[in-house]
Each structure stands twice: as C-alpha cells, then as structure tokens.
Amino acid sequence: MFAPVGFIFFGLLISCSVFAAAPVSEIGGQTPPSVSVAAPQVPPIEPKVLSGDVHYQVQILQDEVRTLRGMLEELNNEVRLLKKRQMDDYMDLDRRLSTSSVGQAGSSLKGGGAVQAASGKAVESSSTGTTSQVTSSASGAEADHYNNAYAQLKAGKVAAAVAQFKTHISKYPTGKYVANSHYWLGEIYVLQNKLELARQSFATVLESYPAHRKASDSTYKLGQVYFMQGNKAKAKELLEKAAAGNDNAARLARSYLTENF
C-alpha cells in the first residue's frame, strides 16, 4: 500500500526539478526588442504681445527722437553763436592792435624831440652821477621787452606772446607797461575761452590801475566776460559804466548792451 504512494511522490519531485531547470528563452533565441515610449511634442509657448503695449513703446521712442532732435538744434545754435562770438573777438582784437600800433607810432613821432632832450640831459649829468643814465637804460629795456611780447601777439604767435607778457609782469612788477600786459593777456584768454583767467586779468587792470588808459577798455571787456559766464547783473553794471564814457570802448559797450539786454 505504501509502495505506490512512494512512487507517486518520487515522480512529483522529479517533475518539479525538471520544470525548475528549464531556461526561459524566446523562440528563435532572440531577446525581445526594448520598447521606447516617445515623449509628446509640446509646442513652444509664444509670448502674447499686446498691440497696446507696442503702440505705447513706439510713442516713447518717437518722443525720445524729438527730444534728441531738439537738443541737437540747440547745440548747433550754440556752436554758431560761439563761432560768431569768436570771430567778433578776433576782429575786435585786430582792430585794437591796429589802433594801438597807430597810437604808438604817433606818440613816437611826437615825442622824438623829448627823447633826444632827455638823452642829452642824461649825458650832461654824467659828471655828477649815473642815476639818470641807469634809469634811462632800464626804461629802454622794459619798453623793448614789452614791444617784443606785443610783436609776438601781432604776428599771431599767441603762446609766445602769453609767455612773454607773463615774464614782463614778473620782471617789471612796477613798470610802465604792466597794465598793458595784463590787458592783452585778458584779450588772449577771451579768444581761448579761458573766461576766468580773462576775468582776473581785466579785473587786475581796473583794481590796480584805475587811471590807466586801458581801464575803460578793461571795464567793457570785463562786462563781456561776466556776460559769457552767465552773471548778467554784474555784466550790465560794468557795461553801463563803460558806456557812460565818450571813447571807443563806450561806443562798443552801448552796442553790446543794445544787442544783449
């Protein structure tokens, strides 16, 4: 009775081992192909541009263009005025140089006899001392030095003229031509648009040499400089002061007042 049951149990064990040892494979010995799932294509998100925003930005750009055009026109106008002012200053300087040259020539011709007399007096007094001779020599050297600086300016050698006028002022601080040197330095600085230096030069003539023949010219030019610097109240005060005279500076000052005030 137990024999058939043992055989049946033994047979079941053998069948289980056979089934467990069998390899798992596909028909034909090939591995199954991998299956890839493609991601869905998402269309790019395009920004939505509102027509109102575009119109607003165009208006802003147009306003900026109009502003820039206005600024450009103002700059062009300032350049034209600057060129005109510089040309007027050059013409004024040339006129003053010519007038000064004529005046100096006339003074030399009229004073020729006086110079000879002074030279004779110096020779006569040489037996008693050399003071007159030394004074005459120093005055001649001073005049030559100033005339050389002035000649540089007339020749258009502005840098050399500035250097020599400055040297003259330091070399002859109490000399006869110091006020003239300050004045011509002021004229040069105006042409170079160095307005503060020009103001200082003309102010020096007025403050230190109020009775000098260049004082009226310096008053007029100082008024111009203040006007260029934007101080119209001070400019008008000086120009009216210059216009009260009866010389050429007064005529120029009156014309300047009419044009600018």
Question: Could you explain how this protein is built, in words?
Answer:
- The chain has 261 residues and is mainly α.
- It has a domain at 81-97 and 144-261: Serine Threonine Protein Phosphatase 5, Tetratricopeptide repeat.
- 76% of the residues lie in helices and 0% in strands.
- It is built from ten helices and no strands.
- It has helices spanning 2-21, 51-110, 112-124, 131-154, 158-171, 178-191, 195-208, 215-228, 232-243, 248-260.
- The protein is elongated.
- Residues 18-22 and 105-136 have low confidence and may be disordered.
Task: Summarize the helices and strands and which ones pair or pack.
Elements: H1 2-21, H2 51-110, H3 112-124, H4 131-154, H5 158-171, H6 178-191, H7 195-208, H8 215-228, H9 232-243, H10 248-260
Brief digest:
The protein has 261 residues and is mainly α. It is 76% helix and 0% strand.
Task: Provide keyphrases for this structure.
single chain, 261 residues, mainly alpha, Serine Threonine Protein Phosphatase 5, Tetratricopeptide repeat, 10 helices, elongated
